[in-house]
Each structure stands twice: as C-alpha cells, then as structure tokens.
Amino acid sequence: MTSSAASSSLPQAILAFDIGGTHVSAALVELPSWLVVSDSERRRDLDAHGSADAILDAIAACGHAVLTQALGRFDVSKVSGCAMPGPFDYDNGIGHFEGVNKFESLNGCDVRTGLLDRLAAHLDGITFLNDADSFLLGEWVSGAVVGADRVAGITLGTGIGSAFMADGKLVGSGPDVPPFGEVHLLSIKGVPLEDVVSRKAVRVLYTQVSGTSELIDVQRICDLARAGDPAADQAVREPYSQLGAALVEWLIRFGASALVVGGSISKSWYLVGAALS
Q1: pLDDT at 268 over 90
Q2: Which is deepest, 28, 98, 205, 267, by most CB within 10 Å?
Q3: What contacts 29, CB < 8 A, 6 or more positions away?
C-alpha cells in the first residue's frame, strides 16, 4: 500500500484514527482536500478497562478494515494520523493514563510500536495528536469554522476535551485559556469539572434524581429525556448548563468568535445545545 509509479494515478489518502473511551473509529482522509472519504469509516467498540493487547488489537483491526477496502482505490500514505485522548506523550506515542479511570493498561505502554507491529504490512509511522486538538483542527481546515481567526472547540464523551485556536495555531498556554488549554482541569464551585460534567457524572446524577440503582448509559438517558422523562432531562441539562456557565468566562477572555462542539454526546444536541447556551 505504498506510493509507486503504478499507483500514482490513484487519489492520495491517509489513514486516520479517532480513539475514544468507548470506541475507536478509523477512516480515509483524502488529500489535498482533507475530507473524509464518505464510505470509508469503520468503528469498533473499545473496553477502556481491558488489557493493553485487547485495546491495541481492536484499534488495529479497525484500521485494517479501512485499509483492506482501500486497495486499488487509493494511494494510502505509510504514515497514519491518530487522535488520542490524554494524558499521553504525543511525541513518543506512550500512554500516561494514571488516575483517569480509563486505559489503565496503556499507562507506560508504547502505543505507537504496538500498533505498528500489528499493522506492519501497511504502515511504518503514526503521528499522534490530542483528540480535542484534532477535532478543532479538522473543523478549521474543512469544517464549520474554516479559516476563522479565533475559535474554541470542546468534545463531549467519556470526559470533556477542549482546544483553542488563534490564526490557525493551537493555543495551550497564556492568560486567555484555561491551564494547558484544558477545560477539564477547571472546577465548578470547588468541585473538579469532570465530577460534575462527564459520562460518569450524568449517569450517577440520573440514579440520584430517578431513585433507581441501575447505572444506564448516557445515550439511554438522553433518549428518556427526549421522551419526556423529567429525571433524565435534569440529569442531562443540569451538568451541561454548569459546563456552559464555566465556559463563558474563557470564551469571552479568549475572544472566540465561535465554539464548535463534537464528541458522541453532542449527537443529542437537542438537549445538550440548549443546556450549554
């Protein structure tokens, strides 16, 4: 799957991974448009508390599925891009997942080598980038905020990811952004933000408000809220209203002209959007 004279007439693409706390997605991104090839995306469930081998096997299998269906259609780069949640050593491809309640088995693991070993027939390099940074860069290059001067982005999934961008460059320090540009490091009324707004926080709040002892998934809670369940509605709107209040100060301080929202929970925008605003 390397570039060659025989394949030079094929459109060029790279393999891109998006790794989250519950699943991995992979797809081809065509060059030079940087648009995802519409029929190329594949997805696999991930157990964030599974063994390192199980997690790496699932990621590699997802990538292999994309590459297999690309044969004869695209000239695919031997270097892949991977959006990865932190804490992570992005330069060296090593996990630092300690005390974050996910990917514990990847703490200290050489993820880059593990994936290259599994995809050696197709890849000889992987570049890692923070998942929220990757999301905002994608939206700036070919999405909702193409070429905007100052924008911010958040990803709503297992936790809260965030990124800030000025004139096409990511901003991770300075007085106009949260520490390291990471919203999840903030507190709400003295409580760590992710104890108030996260997949776990929404699920726990629902049990408290509804009186049930069953921890159901956030998507199910959103479905119940949409159907008129008041406990589910409160469990979603209350945390994301508090997130919106915490974000406002930083968006104003940064001078953001737009906030872009992504992640799996953003699919329930009919609830989350109203709460954030």
Answers
A1: no
A2: 28
A3: 13, 14, 15, 16, 35, 36, 37, 81
